[in-house]
Amino acid sequence: MERRKTDDATAPGRRARPAIATSRATTSTTSRGATTSVASRAMTSFSPADEEKRRGVRRMKSTATGLLLLVALVYALAKWAQDSGAGPWAGYVAAAAEAGMVGALADWFAVTALFRHPLGLPIPHTAIIPTKKDQLGVSLGEFVGENFLSEGVVRQRLRAVGTGSRLGAWLAEPAHADRVTAELATALRGALTVLRDSDVQAVVGEAVTRRADAQEIAPGLGKMLEKVVADGGHKRVVDLVCVRAHDWLVLHDQQVMDAVQGGAPGWTPRFVDRKIGERVYKELLRFVTEMRDAPSHPARGALDRFLTDFASDLQSDTDTRARVERLKTEVLARGEVQDLIASAWTAVRSMIVSAAEDERSELRLRVRASLLSLGVRMATEPKTQAKVDGWVEGVAVHVVTTYRKEITSLITDTVAGWDAEHTTRKIEAHIGRDLQFIRINGTVVGSLAGLLIYTVSRVLGA
Question: Which UniProt keywords apply (predicted)?
Answer without folding.
Answer: Membrane, Transmembrane, Transmembrane helix
